Amino acid sequence: MKKQSVYGYMRVSTREQNEERQRIALREAGVPEEHIYMDKMSGSSFERPQYKKLLRRLDERSVLYIKSIDRLGRNYIDLNEQWRIITKEKRADIVVIDMPVLDTRREKNLMGTFISDIVLTLLSYIAENERVNIRQRQAEGIAAAKARGVRFGRPPVPMPDNFQEQHLAWREGRISIGEAAEACHMRPKTFYGKAVRREKACLERYTF
Q: Is 13 one of the catalytic residues?
């Protein structure tokens, strides 16, 4: 019987920096460093370059280690489908380090498969539900911040020191809007928009 090839998969989101806990867990499980694949992407999709590269290498002599089920993915339907592809089509084994019951090397009979499938379904549902809850909390937080007057996006670019002078010269017809915009290092459309807003603000200030 040929020896199994051992692989590991890691995933961190674009906002996460610390991947060491996953790497340490994979090393302790016996995964060679050169067989560890990592994507720094969201878990909502399986369109990940390193995961696809890993998938191509898996076969019936492979065992894939992941630290926790949400490192593989968070989308309920896609996660179950990828588990099916790995275990049924590729016929590789999967070991979820943080959940020993999800070890397809154990109890390769109908009852063992049945239990693993139930646990996987439950955990993948929890993973997706948490993703939905995170999005909802983020949306609620943004709405609450906006209600308090917090502004999002880029801070406004300060007005050039010569804007008032160029604005007046343009309005008096002494220069074109293109010349005024160039003197302020702006595009004509940007210059015009700022000029109109400035005029509107002045009008409102002196209207009683």
A: yes
Q: What is the pTM of this model?
A: 0.58
The string of pLDDT tens digits covering residues 141-184 is 777 777 777 666 666 667 888 888 888 888 888 899 899 999 99
Dihedrals phi, psi of 6, to nearest 5 degrees: -105, 130
What is d(CA 88, CA 59) in angstroms, rounded to the nearest whole number? 10
Three-state DSSP state, 66:
strand
Strand 93-96 and strand 62-66: the pairing is parallel
Query: Do residues 47 and 22 make contact, with C-beta atoms less than 8 angstroms apart?
Result: no
Of the residues 5, 13, 62, 176, which is catalytic? 13
Residues 86-114: tens digit of each pLDDT: 988 899 999 999 888 788 887 665 555 55
